[in-house]
Amino acid sequence: MNAPTAFPDPKPVPPYKHTPLFPLGADTAPYKKIATEGVRVEQVLGRDMLVVSREALRALSEAAFGDINHYLRPGHLQQLRNILDDKEASDNDKFVAFDFLKNANIAAGGVLPMCQDTGTAIIMGKKGFRVLTDGDDEAALSEGARDAYLRRNLRYSQVAPLSMYEEKNTANNMPAQCEIYAEGDDAYKFMFMAKGGGSANKSFLFQATPSVLTRDRMLAFLKEKVLTLGTAACPPYHLAIVIGGTSAELCMKTVKLASARYLDALPTHGSADGNAFRDLEMEQEILKMTQSLGVGAQFGGKYFCHDVRVIRLPRHGASLPIGLGVSCSADRQVLGKITKDGVYLEELEHNPAQYLPAVEQALGGEVVKIDLNRPMKDILATLAKHPIKTRLSLTGTMIVARDSAHAKLRERLEQGEPLPDYFKNHPVYYAGPAKTPEGYASGAFGPTTAGRMDSFVDQFQAAGGSMVMVAKGNRAAAVREACKKHGGFYLGSIGGAAANLAEHCIRKVEVVEYPELGMEAIWRIEVEDFPAFIIIDDKGNDFFKELNLG
Question: Do 434 and 445 contact (CB within 8 A), yes or no?
C-alpha cells in the first residue's frame, strides 16, 4: 500500500490577517428607547454578559413591524420633497411625489398602513458573543412580527402550500424570514424589513461572464436590465446593483441589504484582501442614466429612481453574478438594537406633514372626469375620445379581483359558463385590501401589479369582461393587442399611495364572491375622484411601449 501513514510536516504559512467581507463603518442612525425591561448584565466566567429575555425580543419585533408600516425615514421623505422643488421634474413626477407625501401623512396617523401589501416579515439579527438568550430567538422575533400583524390593520399575505398546487392563507402573515448571525461583542443588533411582493418580484440575478467587466459593456448591460424593472413596483426606486459575489445567494442578499441602505457605510475602494466596496462614481452614472430613460415616477419624467447603490464584491474567477433589486415607495425597514442600557428602535419620521408644500400645487395637468356608473359601452366611448397619458378622475363602482379570483373566473369559462354580469358591467381593479379599521369605509387599498393578470386579458375580454382594467405598472404586448382587438382600456393608478386612496377615494367596500379567499376575494367598491391615467387604449397605443417597457 502506498497510502501515507502520517500527515507530512505542514509547510510554513504567514500569520492570518482577517479582513471582513463587509467592513461597515459606524452606525449613525438615530434611535429611541422603547424599553429597559428584559435586559440585565450578569457575570459569567469573569465576563460581563448581556442577558436578553424572550419578551424583549418579541416586543422589539412587534414595535418594529408596527412602525415600518406607518412611518418612513426622514431621508426618504426629503427625497420626495426634492422632486416637488426640482424644475426639471415632470408634472407627473410631481403629481406622484405629492401623492406619496399625502399618503405618508395619512399613514403616520397609525391607523391605515402606507401600502395595502404590508409585506413579508424579514428579520436579520447579529448577536454579539457576550449576549445570552434562552435560544428561542427565531420564535420570539417571529411572534412579535405576528402580533403586529394581528393587532394592527395589516394584511396577511403569506400562503402555505398544502400540496404542490393547493394553498391556504396562513391568516397571521407567518412565517417570517428570520436569520441570526454571530457577530460583535456585547450588543444584539437587528434590521427589520417588510418586503412587499411587488418590489420583491423585481429582484433579478444575471449570471454574466467576466467579459462584461469593462466600463462600456457594463453600462450597456445594466441599462438593458434596469429597463426590465418597469414601473410595477411603485417608483421612484432606491435601486441596488451588486457586481460580483462569492456565490449567487450572497450577491442577491447584498442587493436586498443595499436597497435598504444598510451597507452605506462600506468603504469606497477595494483592496487586495477582497473587501466589498461602494463605487460612488458608478452610482452617479447609473442615476443619470435612469433619469434619461423618460420613465419617471410611474407616468413619465425624470424620477425613475431616488438614488442608486452600486456595490462591488469579490468573485470566483470563472463567475460574475450581477444582481439588481429595488426598495419601492413603501420603503419599509428599520434598525433595532439591544444593549445593557435597554431596547432601542431606529427613530422614523412621525411628522411627515413638514415635507408637504405650504399650499397644494395643481399637479398633473388637466383632469378628465369619468362616471363609472354609466353603461360600459358609454364608459368605453368616453375613454376613446382621449389619448394615452390623459389623467382621469374615476367616480362610481369598480369590481376588485386579482390572481386567485381571476383563476376562479377562468375555471368558469373553461367549464362553458359565462362571466358574471358584475365583471362585464364595471371596470376591474386589481387589488387586495388590508384590514378595514373600525369606523373606516376601507383599509389601505392600493393597486396590484398588473402584469400578473396579463395572461387572462384576451380570454376575459373575448367573453365581455375586463374591458376597463385599473392597476399599476407596465403590461405585456398581449394586453395591448387584446385591447386593440376587443376595444378595451388599461388605466394606470398610482402604486404606493394605498392609505391616501382609502382615506379620500374609496367610499364603500363589500364582498361579492369567494370570501374564503380573504384579501383575494372579489369585492365591489364605490370610489370618488379616484386618480388614474390612460396607459393602453382601444387603438393599440401603449404609453409604456413608448418608453421601451411595453
Answer: yes
Is pTM beyond 0.85? Reply is yes
Q: Which grid cell is 49?
A: 454578559
Nearest to 140 by CA among 110, 180, 185, 181: 180
> Which regions of 302-382 does DSSP assign to beta strands (E)?
305-315, 320-327, 333-339, 342-346, 367-371
Q: Which residues contact 163 (CB under 8 A, 6 or more apart)?
A: none
Query: Residue 294 carries which side chain, given as an amino acid letter?
Result: G
465-524 pLDDT tens trace: 999 999 998 899 999 999 999 999 999 988 878 888 999 999 999 999 999 888 899 999
Amino acid at 188: Y
Tens-digit pLDDT profile for residues 219-250: 999 999 999 999 989 999 999 999 999 999 99
Query: Comparing C-alpha atoms, which of 44, 114, 41 is closest to residue 73?
Result: 114
Supply the DSSP symbol for 301: B
Place of cell 393547493: 166
* Alpha-carbon separation of residue 247 from 26, 208, 457 (angstroms): 27, 13, 39
Secondary structure of residue 93 in the 3-state scheme = helix
CB atoms within 10 A of CB 528: 13
Helix residue spans in 357-468 (DSSP H):
376-383, 403-414, 421-425, 457-462
Q: What is the DSSP string of 384-401?
A: TTS-TT-EEEEEEEEEE-
- The CA dihedral of 517, 520, 521, 527, to the nearest 10 degrees, is 160
Find cell 359565462 and name the residue: 418
Q: Work out the burial of residue 387: count CB atoms within 10 Å of its CB; fewer than 13 is exposed, 13-18 middle, 19 or more buried.
A: exposed
| Count of helices and strands (H, E) across the chain | 15, 23
Exposed e or buried b for every residue in 290-329, given b needs 16+ CB within 10 A? bbebebbbbbbbbbbbbbbbbbbbebeeebbbbbbbbbbb
Residues 110/437, Cβ–Cβ less than 8 Å = no
Cβ neighbours of 417 (radius 10 Å):
11
